[in-house]
Structure formats: C-alpha cells, structure tokens
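Changelog excerpt

This revision adds worked examples to the README so contributors can see how folded entries look when concatenated. The first example is reproduced verbatim below.
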Amino acid sequence: GGGAPPPRSSAGVGAGGGAAPRGGRGVGGGGAHTPGSAPPPHGRVIWRDLDVPDVIALGHRFVDETPRRRAIASSAFETAWMDALAEAVAGGPVVFVSEASTLYFPEAANRQLYADLAARFPGAHVVFDTAAASFVGTQDTHDALRHCGARVTWTVDDPTALEAWGLRVEERFPLMRPPRWIRGEAPLLYRLLVPLLRLARPAMADSYHLNVAQLPG
C-alpha cells in the first residue's frame, strides 16, 4: 500500500500520557485496536480507547478492559467525553492519539475538535495524521482505500499551517520518510519496503504525514 490507512471508525481519537507530578495521571487512547496495537499501560499511565459505540461493542468481544485500559463509546467530536476525561485525569499530562479517523471529516469539524480539546486540556500534546490534497485523487486506486466507502476530505499540504489554529507543531514527517529513530525500531520488512514504495509511488511519498503538536495554553 502506502498513504493513509483505511478508516478505523467514524471517529476514533484518544488521549495518552506518562507519569504526572503531584499524583496526576496520563491517559491514552486510540480506538478499536487489538491488545498488541496500543502501548501497554504501565506504571502510572492509563489508556482510554475512544470510538463510536458499535465499534467499542465489537471490540469488547475480543479485548477485555482492565483498570488502566478502558473504552469510551463516543464520537470524537462530542464533548461529554472530554469533560469526563478532564475530571478523571486531574490535571495530569495528556497526549491525544488519532490515527486514520479525523482526516475523513471536514476541516471545520477538525478545527472545532482541537478547539474543544484545547479548552479542556491546555498544553496537551496531540499525535495525528494528515493527508495532502494530492493524496485525495489517489484514493480510488489505493490498494486499501478503494474498497472503502469513506474518503479523506480534510487535506493539509503543510502541517505547520495548523499553527494558525493555535497548535504548535513540534514534529512532522512523511510516512514514507520516517526519522532514523523510527526506522531503527521498525521491522526489517518495513525498512526494506519503504524505499521501494517511494520509488513506486513518488507522488505519494510526501503526501501523508504523521505529526506531533501541542495544544495552546
């Protein structure tokens, strides 16, 4: 393949974090994943999987909840879960992780999502993916996306442009040009395939980014 993965749900975004001072807690999430696909909670880290109710119900058939890993059945764009989460983390450090979800929704919805998060979690970090406008035209021939009814609608050619929303973009890199520290941890097959994919689909090589940003506040 290459480029954006197919959507995991109608909206799956979560929060994650590490040990917090003064008894605070981090919270993490990422939608409907198998146990091995999310960072295993350890120490003082807690993890929350956020996804729409039918996907969470399906996940419960295969993955048991634990005190540190639980599910939140909600659209990412609703705010009730944010209010409950803000109370639960008690001011601890938080990082939100969104993969293959919000880029299938309009720009206005995404901008409001980040504004709602910033209002409740000022200074929190977000890890998310973006697709450039050049990627949109490739969806009908993409080996995975061509079989999906959903289509990427929110496009970002330059992730640093999101700083106009108040985000501070700390890191960004194309999926097919990962930084050295990721390449070193990746399986051998990935390290071998990525250069081949860049050659086979040069137009897509820089069209899909992974980003790390900090919310205002």
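The second example, added in the same revision:
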Amino acid sequence: MRHRLAALVSLIGVFVMASGMLMLATSPATAKNHAPTKVFVCKYVGKPGVDERLQTGNNPISVSISSIKDFNGIGSFFNDAQGRSYVLAYDTTTGGGQTGEPSVDECPAPEGPPETETPTPTPTETETPDACPTVDGIQSSEDECEEETETPTPTPTETETPDACPTVDGIQSSEDECPTDTPTPTPTETQTPDACPTVDGNQASTEECPTDTPTPTPTETNTPDACPDVDGIQSSPSECPTVGGTET
C-alpha cells in the first residue's frame, strides 16, 4: 500500500513538471500572437503655440501602429497631414462599436497662443475728505472741528449821502437846506415879422407898406437914318444934301 501511494505521488509530480515545461515552451508564442496592433490617437489641427486646437468629430480615433512613422510608444507625439497627434493608449477593444474608447477629455490640452499677462493696476491713493474745511489741516471727523469758529468782522463800506438839492452847489442832506428864492428868467427877444419885405426896414402891418407905384424909366428908341450915305443921322429925306443943286 505504501509503495502504491509513493508511486502515485511521483506520477503526479512528473505530470506537473511536464505541464510547466509545456507552458514555458508555448507562452512566448501566445504572448506574441496577442500583442496590441492598434492605439488610440488624439488628433490636433492648427499650429502649436499659435492656433492649435483639438479636432472636432470622432476624437480620439483608433489607428494601426504600423501606420505611425517612428512610433515611440504611449505618451508620444507624431506629425501627420493635418497637424500633430498624440498616442493616448493601446486599443485592446474587441468587436465593433465604441465600447471601451477613451474620452477626448483624456487628451492633453492643445498649445494655443501664450497667455498675455495682464498688468495689475496700481491702486490710486484716495484723498480723505476734510470734515472741517474752514480749519487748517484735514480733519476726518466733525468731532475734530473747533467748537468756536472766529468769524471775521466785515469792513463797513462808506455810504455816499444823496444830495437833496442837486441844482445848488454842495451836498444838502435835507430839502430844508435848499434855497427857496427862484431866479427870474431873462425874457427872450421876439423878432417881429416884416409885413412889407420889398420895402426897406421892418413893417409890422401891411398898412405901413407904400402904395405909390414907381414910374418905369423909358427906354431909348433909335431913330432910323433917312440918308445912310451922308454922315450923321437924318430923320427925314428932306435933310439929305443934293448934288449940283439937284435934289436926289
């Protein structure tokens, strides 16, 4: 009985050792046959540092490792026709559909334009209002104002006394000081109109105008010469001289 049990244990040991050797012999081939051939890639468009952004639509996408030139493993970038891409993870999904695909939120943020530092505004000094503007210095509270404020006495202005008698020399403060004598006005000479302007002197009435009409001076009339061939003027042909005693 004891020999049978020892033989059985030895047989089991040989079987276990043979199984282990068989697994060691076949494991590299099995591992090689199940190595992932695809990876999930995050796609970017635009120029890094200028306007780079994640591509819209289906992103990340599954691509074949053999299509990536100079593949450097998970977590590396590579360039393609649209821009650059990022290897996010191995694609170990089986069958169709999108089950097991990573979210676009797992992709690294795109490199956009550098952020411009906004300058911090310099705080402006706030001037404390003066609670007592009539007191020297600045008082922040009315409690600091002086209780008694000296009010300056105004300088009296000289008032000119009105003249009660403007027509009299000097200034009279009352009408009682005005003289009562009114000077007699000098009469003005009135010129008498001339009733006979064609006569010398001034006549106050037309009755003083002379009625005699002056005799007009006769004008001298030239006597015609009856003997124009004889010197002098002859008023009648009888006064003309005759030649040889014969009257012409």
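Reviewer comment on example two: Residues 20 and 146 are 107 Å apart (CA to CA). The first helix runs from residue 2 to 33.
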